[in-house]
Amino acid sequence: MRPMTASPPNELRSAHGHRSVAHLKDHWYVLCTSSELRTRPLARTLMGTPLVLFRNANGEPGALLDRCPHRNVPLSMGSVEGAELQCGYHGWRFDTAGTCTTVPGLCGDPVDRARNVASHACKEQDGWVWVWGEPDSEPTREPYHPKAAGLKGYTEVRRTVDFEATLHATIENALDVPHTAFLHKGLFRGGREPVEIRAVVTRGADGAQVQYLDEPRPPGLAAKLLSPSGGVVTHYDRFWMPSISEVEYNIGTENHLVTTGICTPVDDFHTRIYAHVAFKLRLPGWLVAPVLQPIVMKIFNQDAWVLREQTAASERWDGEVYTSTELDLMGPQVWRLMRRSQQGRPAEDDDWSKEVRLRV
After folding, report:
1. 3-state secondary structure of 352
2. Residue 140 domain-assigned (yes or no)
3. Residue 197: what pLDDT?
4. Among residues 97, 132, 167, which one ends one of the domains?
């Protein structure tokens, strides 16, 4: 439980109360890596709802509400028996569809809809177990596939990082350029006089993108490692519904990096990122990866720290009191798309775009 805090001063009270929390159920989310789901049930939480993941006898994943309908004991405390999940209290068994197949000691047919458990569609893809957010419903689309994943010549790095922040705040942070010169100074950007560049923002029905133009290679250790000889940057920041951030850099003619954050809303103020970094450089990947990984993790840890403090401050002031400018390119677009989806409004057919100038 977080400590209670004083009320904000009067001049802020008229603006308090807003929190960028969105529950987007009709989408896929990653709940674990393939290697995490083995022979034991795995407890996970999605949008505040406890779930249990397990594999059946064929190795296929299933996701059920983590609650036995008999006496409310978490099914994640049980075991996998053949193709089914067995409750550790009285031995009730459930298949991946949530159907109760066995009630030990019961004379007669155990099948009764009241004994079933809500189930979520599952799909194993690209080394992750994806779960459809709406229980007992059929998915209407395929899970996201990371750009450059599995491509020949690319080195791939995967990490899982937790943030004490809303899904929206986490994604905005991943796609926000201005903070990098300050929070990540010395690692990425910062350390030189800012240069003026152009940014083209576009938004469609399922995502948004910012293309940055005329930017020289940023200063900082990470950029120097990616392109020792310098060069002009081709840089894109992208958001894909409901929770994917994608940052792409082409530096010079031979250096390409794509960092993808597959974000899972554990609850309103806890977001887990399954990060995927893929790069192809002039230097050998086996040589660069051991140096690049600690730099990337330090950047992630700095972001986790500032988001934790942002969340605490928002609670202290009883809501998010923001003042935005044209430099806040992606946050408003991400929130607009999230709110539209949560409210069930139809997708916008018309594309929208604008160009702004900024100094980085």
Report:
1. strand
2. no
3. 86
4. 132
